[in-house]
Amino acid sequence: MTLKFYNTLSRRLEEFRPIVPGKVGLYTCGPTVYNYAHIGNFRCYAFEDILKRTLLFLGYEVKHVMNLTDVDDKTIRGSQEAGLKLNDFTAKFKQAFFADIAVLRLLPADIYPAATEHIGEMIKIVKVLFDRGIAYQAEDRSVYFSIAKWPQYGQLVNIDREQMRSGVRVKLDEYTKDSAADFALWKAWDEADGEVYWDSPWGRGRPGWHLECSAMSSKYLGATFDMHCGGIDNIFPHHEDEIAQSEAANGCKFVNYWLHCAHLVVDGQKMSKSLGNFYTLHDILDKGYSGREVRWVLIGTHYRQSLNFSFQALEDARASLQRIDAFRTRLQENLANPAGDSGQVEEITSKTLDDFAAALSDDLNISAAFAALFEFIREMNRLLDSGCTGSNAARLALDCLEKLDRVLAVCTPDPGEGVPPEITALAEERQAARKSKDYARADALRKEIESQGWLVEDTPKGPRVIRK
RNA sequence: GGCGUGGUAGCCAAGUGGUAAGGCAGAGGUCUGCAAAACCUCUAUUCACCGGUUCGAAUCCGGUCCACGCCUCCA
After folding, report:
1. Phi/psi of residue A133, each to 5°?
2. ipTM of this predicted complex?
3. How far is residue A67's CA from residue A29's CA, in Å, rounded to a whole number?
4. Which residue places its CA closest to the C1' of nucleotide B71?
5. Burial tier of A115 (Cβ tally within 10 Å: 0-12, 13-18, 19+)
């Protein structure tokens, strides 16, 4: 079984070969911490989480770096509006980000470098580019990367600058750059920046956006590393510019595999504040959905396919998750049984794990991976129905489920999803009524429990209470 | 205008040359005090449309229609 990914660099599926066998250097573009991240952002981070978990599942050692952009136009403007120092302003959103990724069960990166803590490294790159004659300082005191001096520019996208729509956004008059396509490495300070600036050989200023990723990725992962991910919109100009800077400065290939995820749309339209379909994670949680349900929706569509987010999808998620929960509960109940025979279970679990790994190895085919999970559940349920209720079988099946969940991370409920004591009390009262064959009262109690959001199921082992 | 995606059942979504995975919803059945859960059966003669290549196409080629993204700092 070979591991394959779609590489934006070649626009085709490629076998994955890490630089050091068994190890992966992974860089993912992180948030700009000027606001709460929205579910579109999290779609991308969720894709990266599936990628990372798949690599771990397949036995790779992963070094994951995710940057935090804590200085740019938006963070500066935001801090000024809030009357806070830049760092105090961004600290709040950094914390919110970490809280949100925990809710979505995203594995934390190994390193979260912040742009403001790597100014020195960035200046070094600009110096090299300057020495090589690729960077120049314009009349506005800013330093730019000269695309004319770097013919390799345009590896990720075919940009025909003659064909770019002129006059819409590109107003040549406003530029002091040599060419409109040149991009800023170092932005000269101006009054709007207030007290946000660093000293550099080219005067006070701050780094251009692309520069931080070049500096921080190579610092922690090396001048050439395995994988770099982000949203599809980052292909141009962000990643294109990173490649240009890094390769021009380091004289070697920057990244071997570029993976980009498609956008999330809401009810078929791009999410935007003006359309009123803009959601942060908390907007969704406040409507009563769990982080696990949101995760389910975010990971359910292949990462290169645009994901149509809707509340209907969240409702469906709840139903699917209940099936998984019911299955897991059933297995757990069987753990207390005598050992029993588990011959067929080994066959089923090993096929499941094979199918699952093969699906994910094929450019993260998540739908096929879920199909493996559901086929596993169905086959196991069939066995359980036919009397295979030994603890050995349950143990094996639970182990298998746990392995699948190392990638999916949706098979266990969120804390707080447990049954409240007052509901348990009602369920016990109902069971007493059933024992005395007072079915009218038992049914009334079940309705009462249901009205509070819980369901009672009668099983051979007694009643079981689950979330509605 | 340039570049790039995508259109598969009521909904979500795999499948990229060999005769349509999986989930949700729906129908019938087994089980049950009744339910629920679980299991079984059924639910696309067909993959936007029109041509072409092929023994064979959802899959390849050409065209048409529709939707979406990027084109200077938006994941």
Report:
1. 80, 15
2. 0.93
3. 6
4. A164
5. buried
What length does chain A have? 468
C1' of B24 to CA of A133 (Å): 60
Q: Which of residues 429-468 of A touch strand B (CB under 7 A)?
A: 434, 439, 442-443, 455-459
Per-residue pLDDT of chain A (468 residues; tens, 9 = 90+): 799 999 998 888 899 999 999 999 999 999 999 999 999 999 999 999 999 999 999 999 999 999 999 999 999 999 999 999 999 999 999 999 999 999 999 999 999 999 999 999 999 999 999 999 999 999 889 999 998 888 888 888 766 555 554 434 444 444 567 777 789 999 999 999 999 999 999 999 999 989 999 999 999 999 999 999 999 989 988 999 999 999 999 999 999 999 999 989 887 777 877 677 889 999 999 998 999 999 999 999 999 998 988 888 898 898 899 999 999 999 999 999 999 888 899 999 999 999 999 999 999 999 999 999 999 999 999 999 998 889 999 999 999 999 999 999 999 988 776 788 899 999 999 999 999 999 999 999 998 998 888 888 888 878 888 887
Token pair of A126 as six digits: 């600009």
Give me the torsion for CA of A263, A269, A272, A275, rounded to 10°.
Answer: -170
| CA A322/CA A326 separation, integer angstroms | 6
Angle at A348 between CA A345 and CA A351, to 5 degrees: 145
Protein-to-nucleotide distance from the CA of A365 to the C1' of B67, whole angstroms: 24
User: A231: Cβ–Cβ under 8 A, 6 or more apart, which residues?
Assistant: A29, A40, A44, A260, A261, A263
Element spanning A330, H or E = helix A311-334
CA atoms within 13 A on the CB side of A430: 24
